[in-house]
Amino acid sequence: MALLLAAACRPGPAPASVAPAVPRTVVLVSLDGFRADYLDRPGAVRLRALAARGVRAQRMIPAFPSKTFPAHFTVITGLHPEHHGLVANTMVDPAIGTTFTIGDTLVARDPRWWQGEPLWITAERQGVRTASFYWPGSDYEVAGGRPTDYRPYDGRVPNAARVRQVLEWLARPAATAPRFVMLYFSTTDDAGHAHGPEAPQVDTAIAQVDSLVGMLEDGIAALGATERVVLVVVADHGMTAISADRVIYLDDYLDLSTMRVIDWMPVTGLAPRAGEEDAVVARLRGAHPHLAVYRRDAVPARFHYRAHPRIPPVVLIADEGWTISSHDRVKLMGPPRGGTHGYDNQLPSMGALFVAAGPGVARGRVLPPFGSVHVYPLLAHLLGIRPARTDGSLDSVRAALRGPIDVFHRTQRRDGDPGGIFRDR
Ligand code: AMP
Ligand code: ZN
Ligand code: ZN
Fold this sequence. Notes:
Blueprint: H1 2-9, E1 25-31, H2 45-52, E2 55-57, E3 60-61, H3 68-77, H4 81-84, E4 91-92, E5 99-100, H5 105-108, H6 119-125, E6 130-133, E7 149-150, H7 159-171, E8 180-185, H8 187-195, H9 200-222, E9 229-234, E10 240-241, E11 247-249, E12 259-263, E13 267-272, H10 277-284, E14 291-295, E15 314-318, E16 323-325, H11 327-333, E17 339-340, E18 354-357, E19 365-367, E20 370-371, H12 375-383
Parallel strand pairs: 1-8, 1-9, 2-19, 3-20, 6-7, 6-8, 11-16
Antiparallel strand pairs: 2-18, 4-5, 9-18, 10-17, 12-13, 13-15, 14-15
One zinc ion (ZN) is lined by residues 32-33, 68, 189, 236-237.
């Protein structure tokens, strides 16, 4: 019905059909911190095989800042952090009055933090059941709902148990099985932080998550569902090495007791006393050759990091591999070692994995780098549902697809075509 209405409103030839003959199921797997080039490391055997029967991106460009919560919520809403509100893993909102951190579930469950429409809500509203074995936000009430099935985040739950539960969900009768499923493992991020991206421990982590993807794929095959399940494996960001030799001590330039440091690394948010913002920027500008310093309204446009009141008044961005800290903080936490992420999202080292295969997906193609805002429209298309307005567009990732693009997706950007036929939020 919706399709007929939409088609009737639009002049021109009749659109290609939206829904595939057999409704597809989409399983979206996030391998936290799986840098795009890890796909070519020895352990990524099943992932490379998946890419060979589908597509892989040279790299997916994550949200800025390239941190877990902002980046995951961009993938699942198609919005830049300045539009979905998860502007950092740690943030304050003048209107809410509390500090959001990813571990503080009492604060984080306040739905005001989570703006925009995650794909699980888009799907549920259109009668498509969804299930999540972890995705940031999916265990809270967000945008007025939740996935039909979800689990409160607990990083101690063994990864294989997560896969087994997902397979149980997929094995349900068609009437109750979810058609959109999310799954998450932190293994590669944990190893990258602890040891740095080039370490042998990261090779072990790559092999572990690779075999979990293999277990999932084999389980789907055992259900006889390979022909109707699209498997999409992404990361939220990459990883780069940090070092005790590359530290920017903010207290060498500023009296930190006169301001609030909202978040530290590698994008630091400062909230100086009212009226002192320009003085702080002037003091820091040029202070260190590996530190970029901006007032919020002057952050370079390509970061899409200005429009939200949760973005701190002064934003500092470290060059790749540098750590912004203070002498006290280094004493407390020890000198930087291992790896981290959060830097300029265009850096190859921040580039994230993207691999997809299954019905509707092209075969054997390597996609040029694309932004993670385009994943939401891609998944909505594969599910045959109408997307909300986003910052992404299906056109940007149409090379990932086999077959025609439906009418709902021809134009859907938030900033374009006000007379378009996409659904408003
Ligand atoms: P980051 O500090 O950006 O590296 O965040 C990675 C960490 O985020 C993981 O190691 C988990 O501890 C945490 N995390 C990932 N997903 C969730 C979630 N859905 N809820 C709470 N914490 C999460
Ligand atoms: Zn992450
Ligand atoms: Zn991390």
